[in-house]
Amino acid sequence: MTAVGRTAKEKAMRVVSWNINSLRKRLERLLHWLGETKPAVVCLQETKCNDEQFPVAALREAGYHAVFHGQKSYNGVAILATTEPHAVRIGLCDQVDDPQARVIAATIGELQVYSIYAPNGQAVGSTAYAYKMEWYNRLARCLRAQESGLERVLVCGDFNVAPNDEDVHDPALWRGAIMCSEEERAAFRALCGAGLSDTLRLLHPEPGLFSWWDYRMLAFPKNRGLRIDAILAGKDLAAKCTAAGIDREMRKGKEPSDHAPVWADFGS
Amino acid sequence: MTAVGRTAKEKAMRVVSWNINSLRKRLERLLHWLGETKPAVVCLQETKCNDEQFPVAALREAGYHAVFHGQKSYNGVAILATTEPHAVRIGLCDQVDDPQARVIAATIGELQVYSIYAPNGQAVGSTAYAYKMEWYNRLARCLRAQESGLERVLVCGDFNVAPNDEDVHDPALWRGAIMCSEEERAAFRALCGAGLSDTLRLLHPEPGLFSWWDYRMLAFPKNRGLRIDAILAGKDLAAKCTAAGIDREMRKGKEPSDHAPVWADFGS
DNA sequence: GGCTCACGAG
DNA sequence: CTCGTGAGCC
């Protein structure tokens, strides 16, 4: 970036996190939306394809570099960016041989960007739930170990936790259930306590903002959702967050993902 | 029809036969095509849905009555018409309890219309092949037993037989193979010998006209197809056939059926 | 290659 | 409800 570029008025940089629920199934939708909204960085989860199947060429034609970490059938994360990502890291720092592809991180300009897909946990008390809590411990340790601190870090993804009652359409119904238990919320808040801010909530404390709706029971038309996706920002970045929101349009139309993209704009 | 209607110049009535390879999967395509081409009668094969799943309402909105005979997963035949079909008959006349839904017939105006889906036969000599030949015997018997003769009969469908070498992209390659064996061709020609005419060939003796192309190996772009779908017409109707063809456009675009519709126009 | 299914997972 | 899989069929 030139000195002129720095001093000129810069357009806010948009970062988005979207659980796409199969990249191959929704590639056309993704490309159209990239062309329309031109985000600087897109973190994807549940790409559900292995690295050989990743549509590198189509995304390159749409103007995006891509780094990705996938597996067959399940999980899979990626980061798309208009500038080239560097120093790509796969998995949580202390477990490189994780069979589940849930974490990728890369340096994009001055940002340290994570795209993460937390385990669902099935039901409170299940072995899948124990794995989820353990995974959150590992994530926290990994972020604490992040070189150069968290100031320029963004942790974007599907956390599979609705952090507060405001993030739940019917808190009484969901009380204590998976994604809403106190233990899960504590794990999520521990990340925020360690120097990260939930950007959506910095600007929008109001209830009724959701990022996920069950495919069943007309949950979306009734807006019976949860907000389980987030963009967490380190101090320097949180201070520059000028806008944030959820793109509900992406949960409409034919064969939508069950998640809507969560976005945050950062000024210069 | 009024006396005025009879004497006025009438637009040719188009009859189409199309193996749709899943009606539910291609309903939108079908509706669009009905709106564009407005055929009077459409015979469908491989609807692959049971009668409860048949999209009666959507077709009614598109201006079509429908009679159908389906089953779960496989086979399934239907007749769509702009005027109401009557005297609907299911299965081959001498076997009402056939577990395979391959035949439906109905009276539409002065026409006796059959929509038929012949067995594939797998490989010459297989038990599926024996079933196919037996099925052709039953079909021939059933047509011979047709009350009031075959003059006003149309037998439309996927015959799973390429009647002559002109109906095969590479006759040497296919010689003796399933859909091209002499025994199968004899069974098909026996229908024609009994007072029915292959309408496409009445007007188009030339080779290179196909109605089916394998999904694999770029068979359609290379036009490596077979003509295994037909509209057979009784004497009175054959004499009134003014045009015939195959709608190759329907084999293009996203997720086409492997078959293209075969059509014939009948003047007054 | 595209359909069906049943299964497992979300 | 909507994904993936793998098997069976065409």
Description of the structure:
2 copies of one chain form a homodimer. With 268 residues, chain A is an alpha+beta fold. Chain A has one domain: Deoxyribonuclease I, Chain A, CATH 3.60.10. The first copy, chain A, is built from 8 helices and 14 strands. Chain A has a 6-stranded mixed β-sheet. In chain A, strand 3 and strand 4 (77-81) form a beta hairpin. In chain A, helix 4 (127-144) runs parallel beside helix 6. Chain A starts with a helix and ends with a strand. Chain A binds a DNA duplex (10 and 10 nucleotides) through loops.
Characterize the largest beta sheet of chain A: strand count, sense, and whether it forms a barrel. Answer: 6 strands, mixed
Specify the oligomeric state. homodimer
- The strand order across the widest sheet of chain A is 3-4-2-1-14-13
Helix content of chain A: 10-25%
Count of helical regions of chain A: 8
Instruction: Count all strands of chain A and give the number.
Output: 14
Q: Provide mean pLDDT of chain A, rounded.
A: 93
Overall, the morphology of chain A is: globular
CATH superfamily of chain A: Endonuclease/exonuclease/phosphatase
Low-confidence region ranges of chain A? none
Count of all domains of chain A: 1
CA radius of gyration of chain A: 17 Å
**Class per helix and strand makeup of chain A:** alpha+beta
